[in-house]
Design goal:
By secondary structure, the chain is an alpha+beta fold. Helix 4 crosses helix 11, helix 14 packs parallel to helix 15 and helix 17 crosses helix 19. 46% of the residues lie in helices and 19% in strands.
């Protein structure tokens, strides 16, 4: 049976919630998506113009559409998540599995054991987690074993076997770590009370256990059983110390999941905080690689479904930074003030720190990806038509109108290319005129690059505001390069970025990498220009000093500098060395001047 034409498939889709799958010519699933209305969502791929080149490529490859109708949008989210993980379509974001995460298991048996595991079985046992680190699991188990005497053997403690005296207590009993349930020294009711308290602690509720221990401690103290009261006091301290390490938000905020997102050109970073009884009991950040320039809303909706499924969350309410569509069964809150906003900000801070750490790691292990990400981000932030792989920055330098010079520094792939730096002595401008000087050096720089057929930069940065930018534009106009190279000016005071023909400056985030690189370029151009200016002033000062020696003329100065290379070497020369160059009479005049 032949596949109906694609337009017929799209036109006959139902107006129901569900999941759609796109197939290519080889019959491979290349994309999976969910929709409130299948017909509207799928039709939008074929009826509108897409800004993203990746989406346009995807649409060209679609030859067949299949769909699965579900009852609710929540069901669509879960099904989409499962199909993405199963088929790993080329154009979907990447979701990793959670098989390696540890859990804490309370085994379904008489006198249940409590232990860590990485495998979950549907045998009626209760599993808490998964936890994002093994260290957290070990800390919790140490806490539980310090508070309650639990067995760690794997004996079958059925009532018949205990009554028949099948077992004998082991070393753990004699060490005080177990109460000897195997010989009937502990009742099942007493043991299960401890298990109930452990479940509350694993949920983040410390109040009940603390209350019980404090009551027991008072009872032992009144009965003069001070040793036992001291042991209970130590357990209270253990529990309070552990509780104090948890981030306390507000006791009224309970059983809530908090999600926030940070994203850049290539990746989304979604942080998850789980709150129980006013404490954060879990934090996890998920990194998602973008495939089709997905929006933050699309990434967050997919990540919330994935994370809640992964961590088996049953919370009925979530806090998010903006509205998301997750079905009617889940209460979505967008906090604006107070403790709820505070916890959302904390989640966002966690996402930012995770992103920064990833950048540091990538810079070391995968420098190419680091460079590509920065270039892509600069292209967006600076509103450029292409990535600024080659940037040149100009700065004028003159002090009190003397020795006007200019500097051009070059960055390639976000790093200084010092072999390409250039100094300029201003030739055509009389006196201190920054605008005319900028016009001259920009013209000279790109006239030479054109004449030598050297590659031109993608971006020029002018250190200065509108005036310097206008001067540089005149030179680009004269060379026919306006529109070929992007050009901006950066003003020092407020770090304003000026664009040609745009009176309103652009302000970048003060912490953005784009602004940091732009500032680095500006500062490097300033340093390089000042260095050249200082050297020129020093050289002039020394040369002038030679000319002031009585009886020494211009020709003699030239001869001395030609031989000794600098005025400093002339000053340090011996008489006989000077005589060899300018004769006895003038040598004595020079030597006596410096050795009065």
């Amino acid at each position: 049976m032949s596949i109906p034409a694609l337009d017929i498939q799209v036109k006959t889709l139902p107006n129901s919630p569900g999941v759609y799958q796109y197939f290519d010519a080889e019959g491979t699933i290349i994309y999976v998506g969910k929709a409130k209305n299948l017909k509207k969502r799928v039709s939008s791929y074929f009826t509108k113009t897409h800004d993203s080149g990746k989406t346009r490529v995807l649409v060209k490859k679609i030859v067949n559409v299949k769909h699965i109708v579900v009852e609710t949008e929540t069901d669509a989210l879960l099904l989409e998540n499962n199909l993405i993980k199963k088929h790993k379509p080329r154009y979907n974001v990447l979701l990793k599995d959670d098989k390696s995460y540890p859990w804490i298991c309370i085994k379904k048996e008489r006198f249940p054991r409590v232990f860590s595991t990485r495998r979950v079985f549907k045998d009626g046992s209760e599993y808490f987690g998964p936890y994002t680190s093994g260290k957290t699991v070990h800390t919790l188990l140490d806490l539980i074993r310090g508070l309650y005497n639990l067995r760690n053997c794997n004996l079958n403690l059925s009532e018949d076997k205990i009554n028949a005296g099948k077992y004998k207590v082991c070393l753990e009993y004699h060490l005080g770590n177990c109460k000897g349930a195997c010989e009937g020294f502990e009742t099942e009711v007493e043991y299960n009370q401890n298990i109930k308290a452990i479940k509350e602690i694993l949920k983040g509720n410390f109040k009940d256990s603390l209350s019980l221990f404090k009551t027991q401690m008072k009872d032992f103290a009144q009965e003069m059983r001070f040793e036992e009261a001291q042991k209970i006091k130590e357990k209270i301290e253990i529990l309070e110390n552990y509780q104090s390490r948890s981030t306390i938000v507000n006791p009224k905020i309970s059983n809530v999941d908090v999600f926030s997102i940070m994203s850049d050109e290539g990746y989304g970073y979604i942080n998850f905080l789980q709150l129980s009884y006013g404490s954060i009991i879990r934090s996890h950040t998920l990194e998602i690689k973008k495939k089709l320039d997905e929006t933050d809303q699309e990434l967050l909706e997919l990540a919330i479904t994935e994370i809640r499924q992964r961590f088996n969350s049953k919370s009925k309410e979530i806090y998010v930074p903006f509205e998301v569509s997750l079905g009617e069964s889940l209460k979505v809150t967008v906090p604006k003030l107070g403790d709820k906003k505070h916890i959302l900000d904390l989640s966002l801070r966690n996402a930012k720190y995770f992103r920064m750490e990833r950048f540091k790691q990538i810079k070391i292990v995968d420098p190419d990806r680091h460079v590509n990400r920065i270039m892509a981000q600069m292209k967006v932030d600076l509103r450029l038509s292409e990535e600024p792989r080659h940037i040149e920055c100009f700065d004028n330098s003159n002090i009190q109108g003397t020795h006007p010079v200019a500097a051009c520094v070059v960055f390639k792939n976000g790093k200084p290319s010092k072999k390409d730096y250039r100094h300029f002595n201003i030739k055509t401008v009389e006196g201190p005129d920054d605008f005319a000087s900028m016009e001259e050096v920009v013209y000279r720089r790109y006239k030479r690059l054109l004449d030598e057929e050297q590659p031109l930069p993608q971006l020029i940065i002018i250190d200065g505001g509108k005036g310097q930018l206008s001067s540089a534009l005149k030179s680009l106009d004269a060379l026919g390069l306006r529109g070929t190279i992007a050009i901006i000016g950066i003003a020092k005071r407020l770090e304003e970025l000026f664009y040609p023909d745009d009176p309103i400056p652009l302000y970048l985030d003060k912490k953005s990498e784009t602004l940091k690189i732009t500032q680095q370029l500006r500062n490097e151009a300033h340093r390089f220009g000042i260095e050249h200016h200082r050297n020129k002033r020093s050289k002039t000062a020394l040369n002038t000093e030679l000319e002031t020696i009585p009886g020494i003329g211009e020709k003699t100065v030239v001869e001395l500098l030609k031989h000794f290379k600098s005025a400093k070497r002339v000053a340090n020369a011996k008489v006989d060395e000077l005589e060899d160059v300018v004769g006895v009479s003038r040598a004595n005049k020079v030597y006596n001047y410096y050795h009065k």
